[in-house]
Design a protein that fits this description.
The protein is α+β, with helices and mostly antiparallel strands. Helices cover 29% and strands 16% of the residues. The protein contains eight helices and twelve strands. The strands form two sheets. The protein has a six-stranded mixed beta sheet with strand order 5-3-4-2-1-6, covered by helices on one side. Helix 6 packs across helix 7 (287-306).
């Protein structure tokens, strides 16, 4: 389920708050693109302060989930995990008529969101979004889903540059606890007698393509997965990239970067501003057998992250090898 996405040059970690008036901090009122700019420059809005607002719509936010509980798991569910759900908690509670809001990796027919017959909402995470701020686009989809007619899917739509983000809608103190599923049967509520033909066909295709995946319980945001030739551990980590690369290089040079016999640290992904180290595992190593070695590696990594000593020549070579084996997903 890992996939490359088109890259957009980023200049700031977060979107601008909106266009500003010349020499002042007050936000520019919303006007038509061809109307005079409120700043008094005499130019049309689209050629003056509207240019910054237009850029904000496409500017890439490198860490769209920053500040949310479970940022690493958000990244994993967006890029690496085929089938998973998380119950979301909204600030101020749920609106009337909405019994629950659930984040899902994928929805039938790649719907951005779905308002079920009972009023509950499913929000899809692995869809393409129209702007460079995934958090804002998802928040806009969620808002539309909360007011959609029960029993209807929600289509994609661009959100204005000043729109709210997930960080504005979700309770920052609520736990983010993914449930990984073996398939996509969660699409169809237990109360439904059967899925529509379209949903049933989409469910069959999705189940056929899903890679068996397990979230390790002993460490944060580490996901074991099974492929025909070998198994893997993909571990989303919150540490700054340069610091993490140095620490991994120290362990690699010391021969302690593996997870045991037959395992190997083979490289990493970059995804939404975070690094995801990847290990190859033998087919005989299941998720349960991976738990203890992963916890022991976490202790070794914590020690390596504390070191600020210059890298040795061997560690620099190890770091160069790790850097060359990085793949950017987003």
């Amino acid at each position: 389920m890992a996939k490359k996405r088109p890259q957009t040059k980023a200049t700031k970690p977060q979107l601008k708050d909106g266009a500003r008036t010349a020499g002042r901090d007050e936000p520019v009122p919303v006007v038509g693109a061809r109307e005079p700019c409120p700043c008094g420059s005499g130019r049309r809005y689209k050629a003056c302060h509207g240019r910054a607002a237009s850029h904000a719509v496409t500017e890439l936010v490198q860490r769209p989930f920053e500040g949310l509980p479970g940022e690493c798991d958000w990244v994993a569910l967006r890029e690496l995990v085929p089938a998973a759900t998380v119950e979301l908690t909204l600030k101020g509670g749920l609106p009337d008529g909405v019994p629950s809001v659930t984040l899902a990796t994928v929805l039938p027919m790649a719907w951005p969101a779905l308002r079920r017959d009972d009023g509950s909402v499913l929000l899809g995470l692995q869809n393409d979004t129209p702007s460079g701020d995934l958090s804002r686009d998802l928040a806009g989809t969620l808002q539309r889903a909360l007011t959609a007619e029960p029993g209807t899917p929600v289509t994609a739509a661009p959100a204005p540059a000043e729109a709210v983000r997930l960080q504005d809608l979700l309770d920052p103190d609520a736990a983010f606890e993914p449930t990984v599923h073996s398939g996509f049967e969660f699409w169809v509520p237990a109360s439904a007698e059967q899925a529509s033909p379209e949903v049933a066909a989409s469910l069959e295709r999705a189940n056929a393509a899903a890679i068996p995946t397990v979230k390790l319980p002993g460490v944060d945001a580490a996901y074991w997965c099974e492929t025909p030739e070998k198994n893997h551990l993909r571990w989303v980590m919150p540490h700054p990239e340069e610091q993490l690369l140095d620490a991994l290089a120290r362990l690699h040079a010391a021969g302690t970067s593996s997870l045991g016999e037959g395992t190997r640290l083979v490289g990493s992904f970059r995804a939404h501003g975070l690094m995801v180290p990847v290990w190859d595992l033998p087919t005989t190593m299941g998720a349960e057998e991976c738990e203890k070695p992963a916890a022991e590696f976490a202790e070794r990594l914590a020690g390596a992250l504390k070191s600020d000593a210059p890298l040795t020549a061997e560690e620099r070579r190890a770091r160069g090898g790790l850097t060359n084996r990085q793949v950017t997903l987003s």
